[in-house]
Amino acid sequence: MNRTLRERSSTLVFVLLCALVLIGPALYNGFPLVTSDSGAYINSGFHADVPDDRPVTYGLFIWASSLTFSLWFVILAQALVLAAVLLRCLRLLAPAGLPLGWQLLLTLLTLWATGAGWFCSQLMPDIFTAIGLLTLALLLLDGELRGFWRGAALLLLLASAMMHSSNLLIYTLVVAVLLVCVFSQHLVRRQLIRKAALVQVTSMVLLSWVALPSLHAALGGGFAVSRSSYMFVMGRLLESGVLDKFLTKNCTAESQYRLCQFRDKLPNDAITFLWDANSVPGQTGGWEANRAEYEEIIRNVLTHPRYYPALASEAVQATLRQLASNSHGDGLFAYRENSNPYWKVQEYFNYELREYLSSLQQTSRLTFTDLNERLNLTLLLTTAALLLLLGTPLRQHLSPTARLWLVICLTGVVANAGVTGGLANVLSRLQTRVVWVLPWSVLLIVASHAPALVAAQRRKFKLFQKTL
Fold first, then answer.
1. Is the pLDDT score of 4 beyond 70?
2. Given this model, what pLDDT does residue 468 score?
3. How many domains does the chain have?
4. Are both 171 and 76 inside the same structural domain?
């Protein structure tokens, strides 16, 4: 067997084994995992209908990747894409280091420790947040990514950005931080990031802000990222206490705000405000009926500096809380009869309904205690390792690519916390979906640089002995 054929064979084996592990949670469950939103995504894809509160992109992905035949194909497609991205990352971060077998072992160890496969096994766009972040880092740092595969990576970044409205903001923040670093610290001059690569990535992220609204407009949903973003902002203002301050000042005898009638009945959290069967928006005509009023309230809050300290304080608190909110199981309840996921599986994949109903999730037999204990311990060790690798002289023994890779991933994880926690809700699902990229990156980089790190510490120890 010649070298090229061996390399292709090992690549195929890696991708298939990694993909198999990534859909392992679904195999264990007996069916792809669903949340309360999964039905809405399935419906939007099969009807090509733009939902009010989310992009249509992932719904179209479900429709296309399922081949209108099986929801198993959807999570398999997600797993194959992520496995291919991970393999390319491995070739960048450990080009002359670990054998492919060891790289696969470390990857599988991380997936087991962090439970990343639980997101890959869900009929949700959450896994694409991590896929897009890793692809963005690859495009910036992998100088060997050229031609067809570079074009494919750029399209994957664009698609990932369009899968969830939060991804647009997350990738934009990462690129903005990198641009600031470029102009202030000479990353380009040191050739850590090529100008052409930075231009390509920036252009693709900016394009996503136009491509997603254009897709929605083409499907009759209007030129907008989300038709109901104002509702989520209102929920955040409610949860932060800023809405109460606004109503206290503006609910007077002359006030025209319908919300003033419910000032003493508003819930404490955004989820109840948005989704409860007896929610305040529902009692006043629904989301669309309140659009003009809510948008006016948001505009008044954002244009009056008196609210800025409270907004800034709450944004920081929400970001920190979101960073600390890492656990599996959020939203993975049983959705049986009279639930939207059940109805949509029954409507479009009726022959898989028995599988769906007999799965561990739908019979309330899923537990996450052991997995969450592993995840918390892994994240604790990762935090300690990051402090050592980036905050001590040890960083001098890491390659520039490895250091910058960690910075990009860390920026993405923090940006994810800021966007989801600061603008939507503090939910463990929204942070756990992407935080696993840090343990995987740290483990791989430590393993690849272990000989140099150990040698450096031995030299220091010998020098210390001589000084005694």
1. yes
2. 57
3. 2
4. yes
